[in-house]
Write the structure tokens for this entry.
Amino acid sequence: MIKSELIEILAHRRPFLHLKDAERIVDAILEEMAEALMRGDRIELRGFGAFSVRHRRAKSGRNPKTNTSIFIEEKWVPFFKAGREMQHRLNAPSNLDARETGPASKV
């Protein structure tokens, strides 16, 4: 699913909501989530999962194309951990069967 699909689904499920309003809502939520992660806060969506930021130390690596050694600087990376309810939903027998036959229908 991409952002535009999410906006369309939100507007479709809430007929009183115009497409532009749904877009503003999704943008506002994603912006606030990004700001929270930049502050180092943890974001928890019950039943879905948690987003956090993890620190990766500096290390040496290897360029696979040239096989030369390179230095990889330390960095902060986003991390997502699925919630228990989401894991159960993903691994439910009915969902496993649906994934084997092909992608689920949209909207």
Observations:
- The chain has a mean pLDDT of 91.
- Helices lie at 3-13, 19-39, 84-90, 93-101.
